[in-house]
Amino acid sequence: MRTYIQEQGIPKDKILDIRLRVENEGQKPYSGTLKASLDFVVDGENVMLTQGHWRSFNEDYLDQLHASVDGIFLEATEPDFQYIIGEEGAFNEAAGKVGYVNADKDFSVIVTSASTKVEAWDLLRDSTVYAVKRGPAQKVGYVCDQANLTLEIIRNNANLKKLDQEVKAYCLWFIFARTTPISKISEIDSIILKQKIDDWARRCRELGIEPRLKFSRCPARTRSHAKKHV
Q: What highest taxon heads this organism's lineage (predicted)?
């Protein structure tokens, strides 16, 4: 981004107006301004920039939010998945060896009349489905958007085929790029992510589905490593 700004000669007062194209799996691509894409909290000020607007919040709100998200059932992480080094393919293969069914990139689970393909979830075990996302906390929130899309399709009976399995629990499995483990989601330094999780959990409960969370860690990608995987 810095290189692009320098090459294009964009003045400082216009940087937040830069338009971005966002492409996430299972979602229709969309564009928006850089300002609308930022998740930024001013330390010690109880002020955050979210969805292009500055918003203030108080400690009571944070306490309520943390109590809510920490009340979501936390599924134990298998020892082999506490710290994940391999890429997505290796992880899916390892998960298959301990009872998970790989549904990653399977667009046949949910089929709607819309042209956009929907990836329902990544893994399945018994009656629990798992949406898995890897990266820093500030960049994995869109898994909640994907999960909400699946829940909305289920709510509206918009799937053109009957699901092959009963969904009793929906688990968001976060593989956080961080050096230290966490014991509860309130420890994550992203209010936006916690708000999205809280909203997703409420939608699950409205459908009689138990929301769950699961945590793993992975190495943080260096800038040079990230460029190789663009």
A: Bacteria
